[in-house]
């Protein structure tokens, strides 16, 4: 009987370990605050609306039920917004190039990923910061491929050695695709670049059309806070809908600068901006796969600079996740944006609490959460593998305590207390040691004497070793060589690997 209970318990625990866990236990907003922010967001859309210069967006919005104010701003009646929320996709499938590595976004199941547009990398050999390149982008994405607690790879750095915008967009998507078979994300300079990139991704899949396996999503900042639609980005958004590329649409107001200084006000404006984008996407195509990247950034009001590692940033992102989870909408928030310039104690504590609070609040995707330094101005491979360790522990904490059948076994307790006096070596301990527990790859748990004897290596030392191991291992080969050769022959691909 006990063995049967243990077997079922092991299976349940194993299931929790392999599927991203559901968050939502942490609720920084009480019920009253939650309602007031949502009501304010509806009121902002109905009363203040958004500025929109693009004629196509204006025509689409007005035809769909938006109302034009005398000053030209577009407002969205509450009934219209609620209707579009009802029509929107509540779960978004993001397959990988390898479909087995895909993710389902929605419902508060937490996924960790990269993201951003850093322009520098920290060179571990010299300790200096330098401009990021296409090779750096590929290298970072290849590290992501080998990190088991990172689920998707959105472009973290800009390849600054690519001067031509179209060449940059093509090579960014190509480098990400070649480096990992996990779901990837990219961005575009202008609407005309979406089609050639989709054609390249379509060719890469061979007989499977990209529309059937859209392993790459587009990250689009559809709005320039406060409450102004971004003309080029909205054009990109429309092209992605036309061509079947899933969307992650972003509002990134900065409290005290481009959104109100009060966190509640910043959240209300940011939610309104996010919902405006959702309305437009569903006017283009009801139910199109669209994830709301609601990123309430924070200003250090002494200088006006963004601070990504503050306690305010942590709680604001968690609140954004709570708001979208309450509305039943697929969510992305930002966390892990340390202000530290190196992977030191400041980086550790800022990344730890910002990512943990967003995860516990039930963010479906957490962008910018790994590998970033200096308020997302720089990236580091070594920071990325350190953060992978951190995120594994955070995801384990989100799972919580699972009282599966057989977890509490009185027969076993009696055997131990009347016998050996410890649980080491029991069948249950051996079964659960790889499902109930997670072990860090880089974090050190040795005694001080053993640590000293083994070389007194820091986590940075171990991270450098881990990066070298990944880079010395065979590169991912999911992209067939003949297809890659055909793509390179047809397009200006500059990646030299």
TrEMBL record:
Tell me which stretches of the chain form a coiled coil: none
Do the record's keywords include Transit peptide?
A: no
UniProt-listed InterPro entries = MttB-like_sf, MTTB_MeTrfase
Any one Gene Ontology BP term:
methylation
Which stretches does the entry tag as region Disordered?
Answer: 1-30
Which of UniProt's keywords are assigned here? Methyltransferase, Transferase
Pfam annotation, one family: MTTB
One example GO MF annotation: methyltransferase activity
Task: Give the record's family classification.
Answer: Belongs to the trimethylamine methyltransferase family.
Name of the protein in question: Trimethylamine methyltransferase family protein
Cite the source lineage: Bacteria, Pseudomonadati, Pseudomonadota, Alphaproteobacteria, Rhodobacterales
């Amino acid at each position: 009987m006990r063995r049967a209970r243990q077997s079922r318990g092991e299976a349940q625990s194993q299931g929790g370990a392999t599927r991203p866990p559901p968050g939502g236990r942490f609720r920084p907003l009480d019920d009253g605050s939650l309602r007031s922010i949502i009501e304010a967001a509806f009121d902002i859309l109905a009363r203040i609306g958004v500025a929109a210069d693009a004629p196509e967006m204006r025509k689409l919005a007005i035809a769909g039920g938006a109302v034009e104010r005398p000053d030209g701003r577009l407002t969205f009646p509450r009934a219209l917004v609620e209707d579009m929320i009802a029509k929107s996709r509540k779960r978004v499938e993001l397959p990988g190039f390898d479909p087995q590595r895909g993710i389902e976004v929605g419902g508060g199941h937490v996924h960790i990923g990269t993201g951003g547009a850093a322009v520098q990398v920290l060179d571990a050999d010299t300790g200096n910061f330098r401009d990021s390149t296409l090779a750096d982008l590929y290298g970072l994405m290849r590290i992501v491929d080998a990190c088991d607690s990172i689920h998707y790879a959105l472009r973290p750095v800009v390849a600054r050695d690519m001067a031509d915008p179209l060449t940059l967009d093509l090579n960014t998507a190509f480098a990400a695709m070649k480096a990992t078979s996990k779901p990837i994300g990219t961005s575009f300079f202008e609407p005309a670049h979406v089609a050639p990139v989709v054609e390249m991704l379509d060719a890469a899949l061979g007989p499977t059309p990209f529309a059937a396996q859209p392993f790459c999503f587009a990250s689009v900042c559809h709005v320039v806070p406060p409450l102004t639609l971004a003309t080029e980005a909205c054009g990109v958004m429309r092209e992605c809908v036309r061509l079947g590329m899933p969307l992650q649409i972003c509002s990134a107001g900065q409290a005290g600068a481009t959104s109100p200084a009060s966190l509640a006000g910043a959240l209300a404006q940011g939610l309104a901006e996010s919902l405006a984008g959702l309305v437009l996407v569903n006017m283009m195509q009801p139910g199109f796969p669209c994830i709301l990247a609601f990123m309430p950034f924070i200003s250090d009001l002494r200088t006006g600079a963004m601070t990504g590692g503050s306690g305010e940033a942590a709680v604001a992102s968690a609140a954004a996740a709570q708001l979208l989870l309450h509305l039943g909408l697929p969510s992305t928030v930002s966390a892990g944006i340390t202000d530290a310039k190196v992977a030191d104690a400041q980086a550790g504590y800022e990344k730890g609490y910002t990512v943990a609070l967003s995860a516990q609040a039930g963010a479906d995707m957490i962008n910018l959460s790994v590998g970033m330094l200096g308020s997302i101005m720089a990236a580091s491979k070594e920071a990325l593998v350190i953060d992978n360790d951190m995120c594994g522990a955070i995801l384990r904490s989100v799972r919580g305590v699972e009282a599966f059948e057989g977890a509490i076994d009185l027969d076993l307790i009696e055997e131990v207390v009347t016998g050996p006096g410890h649980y080491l070596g029991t069948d249950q301990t051996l079964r659960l040691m790889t499902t109930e527990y997670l072990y860090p790859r880089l974090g050190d748990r040795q005694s001080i004497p053993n640590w000293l004897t083994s070389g007194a290596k820091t986590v940075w030392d171990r991270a450098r070793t881990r990066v070298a191991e990944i880079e010395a291992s065979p590169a991912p080969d999911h992209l067939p060589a003949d297809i890659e050769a055909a793509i390179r022959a047809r397009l200006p691909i500059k990646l030299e690997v």
